[in-house]
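Thread: quick sanity check before group meeting

JM: Hey all, I'm pulling together slides for Thursday and realized we never actually wrote out the predicted structure for the chain we discussed last week. Dropping the sequence here so it's in one place. If anyone has concerns about the input, flag it before I start.
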Amino acid sequence: MPIPDIPESFNATTAFVDRHLSAGRGDHVALWTGEQKITYAQLAENVNRAGNALRRLGVRPEERILLVVLDSPEFVYAFWGAIKIGAVPVPVNTFMRGDEYAYMLDDSRASVVLASGEVWPSVAPVAAQSRWLRHRVVIGAAEGALSFAELMSRESPSLAAEFTHRDDPALWLYSSGSTGMPKGVVHQHRDLVFCCETYGSEVLAITSDDVTFAAPRLFFAYGLGGGMYFALYAGATAVLVPERPTPDSVFAALSRYRPTLFFGVPTLYAAMLQASESEKQYDLSSLRLCLSAGEPLPSELFLRWRERFGVEILDGIGSTEILHIFLSNRAGLVRPGSSGTPVPGYELRVTDDQGADISQGEIGDLLVKGGSITSGYWHKLEATRRALQGEWIRTGDKYYCDTEGVYWYCGRSDDMLKVSGQWVSPAEVEGLLFQHPAVLEAAVVGWEDEHKLVKPKAFVVLKHGQTASLALAQELQVFVRERTLPHKYPRWVEFVAELPKTATGKIQRYKLRTT
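JM (edit): ok, ran it. Output follows.
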């Protein structure tokens, strides 16, 4: 598919904010939160005020601004205001501990930290000790910090975009930490547009008539697109809900705001399906598509959701390094349990351990080529060299491609098991366990038996009302063994109250392996 030619001199804010004023969309609602509706004209003015405020604080092009901000209009103002002056916003998880914020402040060398008042108590102690910070800014009021609202109120609503190159850094996102310490992933101005012209256009088919709502937060690459920049690029409306998503709060938001596009994760969809008679209590008729990423969506979840609510969930896979989804199912063409087919604009390869392409149906390493791939990890040269191979990036995922060109996820490369000399996909076994009526969630890892041989072990979260027992564990083992090859069934089943996850819903299997 043709991707619009982006000029060398390019600042992303012009495409996502300023362009709508000249296109006559100034009165169209850009952001909707609670009772507040913010038009594109108001958005542009507030972005400009935020940019002017940061510039008055002495922020220079390419300096990092750490955003510890809940999903709110202030996040959007600061994000685009920073980009417009050539600075680099770095949205980070708002649910972290103080020592984690200290790590990111030092690693990013941020000159300014902006935090919501609700999370400021966790940020303040480490911000006071940061060697790089020059200013501490809070949304609200707090001792020892500047007020973001007061800073903005003093500034002009006009601001010319800083001269930036399309390949200049526009934003950082920290990797989710599903396999260890997070890494600063650097993205360019052009990357944002590429994602909108590929996944946004070809899969979502998003227009200015759409209303988007994402349960994943804006600090997550998936949530940043689904919850904000896809809508802004299309001139649509983005719904922002600062509260942490729960099944009840998400159902309430879907009924209140009536979005057309909803972005969720498999664990949330599973929890929402646990709510009895939810289809009678909540009106989801506005939805034309639901989207899923972060973890593979079990086929059973897709079928149950479609049956109950009459709308498809399009599962796909993306990554922080590629900024958004590059492999996805399509509306009306879903293959339940699969990741679908490549998003136009991206090329995929499945290779063996030596980097050679392998035959259809064989499991191998997934590599991706496309215009939104990161330029690298900040201060992680060796990790960058391992991930980037010319125009291709190694995703760290194991996949196979069937004869119809559909891709099937088998697990993270570090999570794959060799049992009796044959590959076992944790995702396959987890999907089978999920089909059992007692299972809410499951994670499968490699575990050594008494002979030091690796076999599958399942950690299982039961649905409400189910009781853990030896008999149920044995029943689950038989359930899997009857549905797949004998070497794949879990030799051990351990019932747990919850699975360790990142803030974005990815299961941290490496923690289970050390349990």
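AS: nice. The first helix runs from residue 12 to 22. The chain has 16 helices and 27 strands.
JM: adding both to the slides.
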